Structures are given as structure tokens and as C-alpha cells.
């Protein structure tokens, strides 16, 4: 709060406190106070909603209180302070009460009756003349109003999006299916405002301070959703980072198109580009798992200025996947009874018997909710080639990790995997330490606890030679 430098500012700050009380009650934040001989004789906060009274403006409330206090409806010698330029009704009431001076903060260009639209106080024919003082703490008064309406618009958008009608071309899992998930307390933001969504509702977790030095954009791969990142997310939030985790359409808590043909690589890339633009994501570290890494690389190539680097987890660099990965994707696509959790265990991502991974299967549990799985082999084949120039820039700035889990049963052996990446991105031959193997899947709790901390150290380090070098303790490529 600005320190008062005059009597007018002192009493205007009193009125601002009343305005903030009105805002907290859901009313438009306007506050008013009536002062006589250096003492408050009446005050009021805007309350037409609570009182069901169109005349219950802050000024009228303050005038009524002052008249009761003084025992006279005529308020001779009084000064009324109000945070917003009074309307015609309130200005007329002040004249009728014989208020000596009215002092207001912010101008009201639409309904102001003290000079902005008209000036009720500037008629010499009226038998009482009230002095007007304008613009006292105008910026602070306007800021309270601006913040209130900004928050109200955001709430209205959130309600509108949350209640967005389900399109007849899509399915939606009930929110109750995702209630009380272990280690996942994050409420999604619902987005249906992206043009590429065409009215579908998309779930996006956005946690942590917006002004954080880095934003970790976590993109899941096939047969998964944002929940898979939960252990990494918890670590990054504890470190004061911002984390954004969208569920792609067809996955997680997002709407699911009924037809698999709705899914294309270009469509998913366009949605992610529009999301990054709408959320104004900056200083982004792409954390891409599986094909989520390839999708994210395409987005980063289209808007490189928003991205600081990337951690690509268990990602194959080519459009033709290794035979075990291709068979795994085809099984997920073509077998209606394919079990997601069992598939993740067979792939080597989760140890056998970890049934706490069951929430990964929720989005695909109901009949008809597997169009994305059915489409994914085709989507995977459509993904653009890895952007060599972009990756070379990240490598030169020590902003690139490409990791393979030692337990991954879908990838070739470590050296063959590294050779494939170096063939797809020749610059990797100059930075062999960027390709490395984690002893366990990075999403597992113990590995996430180490990996997330190390990632913050690595990606947050400056590129002037102080960057952290080398991977987590693991087996390095030969």
C-alpha cells in the first residue's frame, strides 16, 4: 500500500480497505468513507448483490451511516471519499445531503457523473455546490478494480470450460474416475479455447510459480498420460519450478475422439503449439517420454525461442521403430483386452507387481475409449524427423539429455540405440555424454528423486562453462 502523503490520501486508503472487503465478498470493489472534523462518521462498501438493492452503492451506504451517526440527513461540512468516480444516483444523493467535498480515486469513463460522462456537480442553478477533487490514489484504486475483473473473467472462463458440453464425436471419462489418485493432487485447467481442439476439452496441469526460471513441459507417450510424471512433478515443485503437464486428446482426463482417424501427428503438434502460445510458455525444458519427445521436438522446432532445452526419455529417433516397440504399439492398438499396466511392466517401465500403477489404465478402461491407442502406430509413423539443427544448438549450450532406461525391453541394446541417435543427429558425435543410460525408468520414485534434482542443476546452469556435465550415476555409452 502506498504511504499517504496528504490527508486526502490517508482517507482514500481507508476507502480502499473497504473496497477490498467488497471484492472479498464478490462485489465490485468500491469503498467510501464520510469524514467530518477529522473523524469518520460513516463508511460503506459496495453491496448491491448481497443486499439485493440497486441503490446499495458504497457512497449511499456511507451517506446513510453518516446521517444516522449525526442525526441529520444534511451532512454539512462533511467530505466523502470514494475509490471510484460516483454515478449519477450517488452524485445526486451527495448534493441532496449537502456534502461539502467529494474526493474520488479512479475515473469511470462509462458512468462517471463527476466529470467523465457528465458533471452533476457543475450546475450553478442547483442550490448547493459540492467541491470535487479528482484522481487521489487513482492508480491504486484502478488496480483494485482491474485485479477484481481479471480474476472474475478467469473464473468465468474456468467455469465455462469446465462445463463445456461434450461433443457427440467424443467420449469423456467422469471426473470421479480420477478422484483421490495417489501422489496426484493437481486439479487440471480445462482448455477448449484452442482452435485445433475444435471444442474438445483438454486437461492441463499447471503448477508452480509463473515467474520460475524454468518451465518443465512434460509430454507423455503412447498408452500413458500425465499421471506418469507424478514423481518428477513433485520434485520440481518442491524445488520452486513451474511444471506444465497436458493430457493429449484421447488420453488421461482429456476428451477422447470416438474415431481413431481423428488422430494425426500434425493435429497433436498443432494443439501443443497453440497451447504453448496461449499459456505464453517461456524458458521451457521439454521432458518428453517416448513419442511425447518427438511431438515436443516438433513443437520446439516451430517455436525455438520458447524452449531452453530438452530431456528425451526412452525415445526412438526414427519413423520406423524397432521390432519390439512396433509389436508393442500394435498390440495396444489391435487387442481390445490389452492391459495397459501389464504392457508397461512387459516394456520394462514398471517393476512387476506394482499395482499402484493401475491409474495409468483409467483413461482406456471403458469400451470405446481406445481410439488413441488404435491410432498411435499410424501417428508414430507420421512424426517428423528429429530437428538436427535445434538439437545441435541445445547440445552446444549443454541443454540436452537423451536417455535410455536400462530396463527398457522395447529398445535395442544401448550401443545400437546410441548409434541410431548419432545417425539421426550427427552433432551427438561431438557430445557423447548427452546420450546415456539411466539405471531405472526415470518415472520410478527413487530414480525420479535423483533425476529431477540433477535435471534442475543441469538445465538451470548457465551456458558460460558452468553447466553441469555428465549424467546421473549410470552406465555411459561406450
Describe the structure.
36% of the residues lie in helices and 15% in strands. It is built from 14 helices and 15 strands. Helix 6 packs across helix 14 (445-460), helix 7 crosses helix 8 and helix 9 (323-334) runs antiparallel to helix 11. It is elongated and about 95 Å long. The N and C termini lie far apart (61 Å).
Please give a quick description of this structure:
The chain has 14 helices and 15 strands. The protein has 478 residues and is α/β, with parallel strands linked by helices.
Strand content: 15-25%
* Low-pLDDT residue intervals, each spanning 5 or more residues: 462-478
**Count of DSSP helices?**
14
Q: Please provide the count of β strands.
A: 15
Overall 3D form? elongated
| Rg measurement, Å | 30 Å
Kindly name the structural category. alpha/beta
Could you give the order of strands across the largest sheet?
7-8-10-9-12-13-14-15
Q: Helix fraction?
A: 25-40%
SSE run? HEEHHEHEEHEEEEHEEHEHEHHHHEHEH
Mean pLDDT: 92
Oligomer: single chain
Q: In angstroms, what separates the terminal alpha carbons? A: 61 Å
Largest sheet features:
8 strands, mixed
